[in-house]
Write a structure and sequence with these properties.
With about 230 residues, the protein is mostly helical. About 75% of the residues lie in helices and about 0% in strands.
């Protein structure tokens, strides 16, 4: 026979309750043949973590593959993708400041951020490449001008997205505990990644691209000559 015990949480600390309950059950001296199994939401979260991790890995690989095709280089996509791990800082801080906990919805937000936070770095790196290839600027000058020129578009696109998810993050009422962590995680992750991208990407570009050159075509060289004339 089996015995089913049901419990309902008074707070949103699902992971904390699950860890304390598992520790208490592990400390019990159960008779031979008696076993226990955690079901419900805790079981659903445990089963979903592996599939969500696989989805995140696949999305990161696809992002890298697309950028390799776009830039025709293997190192520059790594520079851009360096901003992805730092969005986790913002996700954790965002959930903490809004009083939420990590959940499946927050994990989905991390997967969505994987393809969103790289946009700012792509804009900056692509424009820096154009300055080096078409204008023939030196590495340091191209990085400084590229970062300064693309600062305003990056901040504008980031601010529009942040203000777009802010109502979701601040939502209250029936059902808000389900979708509010999605907006909170996206808000915090995008904010931290944008700030770090403005500093980290130019530094990594300077380190990894030092000594590399762009081969300009005859048309680009002629265009530069006409501009100087």
């Amino acid at each position: 026979f089996s015995v089913e015990v049901r419990g309902y949480l008074r707070s949103d600390d699902q992971s904390g309750v699950t860890s304390r309950m598992s520790a208490a059950l592990s400390a019990l001296s159960l008779p031979f043949g008696v076993k226990y199994r955690v079901a419900g939401t805790s079981e659903l979260i445990g089963d979903s973590l592996s599939s969500l991790s696989l989805m995140l890995a696949i999305s990161v690989f696809l992002i890298y593959a697309v950028m390799v095709i776009q830039f025709e280089r293997f190192m520059q996509p790594l520079i851009i993708m360096a901003s992805i791990p730092f969005c986790l800082i913002g996700v954790v801080l965002g959930l903490y400041l809004f009083g939420s906990s990590m959940s499946i919805i927050a994990m989905l937000a991390i997967i969505a951020l994987g393809g969103t936070v790289v946009n700012n770095a792509i804009v900056m790196v692509d424009y820096t490449n154009q300055l080096r290839q078409r204008v023939g600027m030196e590495l340091r000058d191209a990085i400084l001008q590229g970062a300064a020129t693309r600062l305003r578009p990056i901040l504008m696109t980031a601010m529009t997205t942040l203000f777009g998810v802010l109502p979701m993050a601040l939502a209250h009422g029936n059902g808000s505990e389900v979708y509010a962590p999605l907006g909170q995680a996206i808000f915090g992750g995008l904010l931290s990644s944008t700030v770090i991208t403005l500093v980290l990407v130019p530094v990594l570009y300077m380190i990894l691209e030092k000594g590399t050159t762009f081969v300009r075509s005859a048309a680009e060289a002629a265009m530069e000559t006409e501009i100087h004339e």
